[in-house]
Each structure stands twice: as structure tokens, then as C-alpha cells.
Amino acid sequence: MKKIHMLLPLLLVACIDAQPAPDVSERSSDEFTIEVVTNELGRPWGVATLPDDRYFVTEMVGTAQIISDDGMVAVTGLPDDILVMGQGGLLGVLLAPDFSNSGVIYLSYTYGDQQANGTAVYKARLKNSALVDGEVIYRSTAKVGSAHYGGRMVMLSDDTLVLSLGDGFTYREKAQVLDNTLGKIVRLNTDGSPAKDNPFHNKEDASPEIYSYGHRNVQGLFYDAPTGKLWAHEHGPRGGDELNLIEAGNNYGWPLATTGVDYNGASITPYQSYPGTELPVYDWVPSIAPSGLVIYRGELFSDWQGDALVGALANRFLWRVDLDGDKVVGVEKLLADVDERIRDVKIDRDGAVLILSETVQGGSLIRLTP
User: Fold this and answer.
1) 24: burial class by Cβ within 10 Å (0-12, 13-18, 19+)?
2) How far apart are CA 157 and CA 17, in angstroms?
């Protein structure tokens, strides 16, 4: 399905599948309790709640912080080859399922230089505020440029790690070619090797780690354990941001099919759908620049169970996509009067919604409760 919204009062709504698009409602911040945990972050990108209720936050500037009631402490032992350039830097953070015992944590970041760079995964153990025994376990296909790195990570129920990778911006045709990892979602073992039951593992001239392809820049990824479904959203160009259900081996269309147009207004493709590619569950025109994604499974917002919460960088809302199974039945813009770019969304241990926001001055970690 297809949707459009920013701050403009009159916007057309369309449906790729010709079904009626759900109405969009709006709720302001005064309907929630907003706790600012800290507003002293530098370009925050990812957040994870540690078992002792501290927060681990990555910052694009190449640093990470641990936040507790006692304040903020810089993390040591980070990768020594983080490339901070354009949209690159220190990106995602993911705790191993057995983190309470092992202390294992995964970080995604950009590596390389101006001539050749990509996305890497770093595996280490966290001891207090130090990363120890760190090693780089994966590097994506290198390219030239400083945009579209992906970088979101989730762990599936079989303890394989899924990582999103962007198309490198100027390499969009590569998203349809299987001999590289640009514009792909990949699935790895915890040592960084390709999972052996990946759909293209035994295909000649295909990168064996590829799980799905035809993506532009996936910056939201969530595995919904109760349903076993893997959700993702990705940036379109001018329009065409997509919420997708990810299945092994599927082609999600970029750049063969999109509802967006290029930044100069030119057509990218004549197709909004294309044979052999998947339609989005929902999409936005104009772009909201989605970043951060969860399917809500907490206890504090009982009427949000199973709904998608999507952060937005461009129009600076938290979007709630009301899902009935795989079908969108409503859309709600939350925190409409909070003028900050939302970079990441997570669910805290008590069911509160954790939000990383950006401003020109820096960034904040926010807890949202009823």
C-alpha cells in the first residue's frame, strides 16, 4: 500500500494495489510522558538496553556511550578503522541473545577510505565500559562514495545475524546483481561466515551471504519473534520509502520498480510494480526518510500490540503503522510537535519506547510512556 505525508496539509494518497489507503491521524507529545534520558549525544545512530538497564548508544562520529543513572561513560575498544564520512561512521549495535552470560555485542560501521569503502561488522565482549577481544567478522562489497551504507542488524531465532546493506547511492543497478552485496540484506553466522542455507549459497557468481536483494538503503530492520517475520523499511529517492516483509530469496524491486522519482525530478523507472518483485506492505510519498523500526510487543501501550513504529528523519515524526497481520489498517503520526530527526526506535525492558533523536546541536535519548 502507499501513503504520503510530511508537514504539508494537502497531499495525495495512492495505493499501489488499488485498495483504499488508510487514514492518517495525528497525536501530539502532550498525550505522552516524555523523559529525556540525556541530550548530550553526538549524532546518535543506534541504541540497545543492557540487562542492568544501562543504555549502549552508538554515535556516527565514531564514538559510543554507556548511559546510566550515574551519567555517561565513553566506550573503549571500538574498531580502529571506523570511517567517518558522509552518511558513514559508527552505526548499529546488537546484543547477542546470550549477552547476559557472554557479554558478546556486535557493532556495524563503515570502513575504508574515499576510494573504497563499505560496511563492516565488529564482534567483541563488553566488560563494564570496555570492548575486549574485538574482531572484524564481516566486510561488505567496497565501493566509492559516502552514502547508503545500511547498517541495521537483528538476530533471528536460529542465532544467525541479519545485516542490511545499502546500494552505495550511485550503484543502484548493482542492487539487482547477485555478485555483490550492494543493495542487499545478508544473513551471517555469528563468526561472520555466510549461513549455509541462504538462498544463493550454492549459486554460481552469487555472493553466498545474500538473503534478499533489490533494496535501496535499508535503515530499519526488526525480527518479530512471536510471528517469525522479518520486517524492514528502506529509503526511496524522492518518495517511495517502503515498509517490507522480508523473505529469503525475494527481490524487492529497486531500481526496477518504485513510486519515487529521482532527486532532480526525473523518472527512475516507468514501473511502480514489476514482475518477479515484491510490493511493499506500505510506502510513503513524499519521503519521510525512515530510520529505526520495531514491531511493538511491550505492555505499556496495549493498543499498539503488533504495530510497526517507524522513526522519520525528514518529517520528524514517530509513525505508528497499525497492522492487522500483514495488512495496514491505519497510520498515526506521533509526537507531531517535536521538531527533531528520529534516528532509532527500540522497546525498553519495561515496554517504554526508546527514541534516539538528532538536532543540529547534537542528539538525545528519550523514553516515551503513556
Assistant:
1) middle
2) 32
The answer to whether the CB of 42 falls within 8 A of the CB of 49 is no
Residue 107 lies in a domain: yes
Do residues 352 and 370 lie in contact, with contact meaning Cβ atoms separated by under 8 Å? Answer: no
Whether residue 9 is preceded by a cis peptide bond, meaning omega within 30 degrees of 0, is no
Find the length of the chain: 370
Question: Is 220:290 a contact under the CB 8 Å cutoff?
Answer: yes
- Name the pTM for this structure: 0.93
Domain around 265: 24-369
Cβ-Cβ contacts under 8 Å for 240 (sequence gap 6 or more): 258, 259, 260, 283, 284, 285, 287
Residue with cell 552508538: 58
Residue 353 lies in a domain: yes
Establish whether 235 is a catalytic residue: no
The pLDDT tens digits for 113-129 are 999 999 999 999 999 99
Per-residue pLDDT of 162-191, as tens digits, reads 999 999 999 999 999 999 999 999 999 999
Cβ-based neighbour number of residue 136 at 10 Å: 17
Cβ-based burial of 253 (10 A; exposed 0-12, middle 13-18, buried ≥19): buried
Q: Which of these is catalytic: 5, 148, 233, 235?
A: 148
Computed from CA positions of residues 340, 342, 348, 351, in that sequence, does the dihedral angle turn out positive or negative?
A: positive
Residues 6 or more apart in contact with residue 325 via CB below 8 angstroms: none
Instruction: Name the domain count of the chain.
Output: 1
Which residue matches cell numbers 516507468?
A: 270
Residue 193 lies in a domain: yes
CA 169 – CA 83 distance, rounded (Å): 17
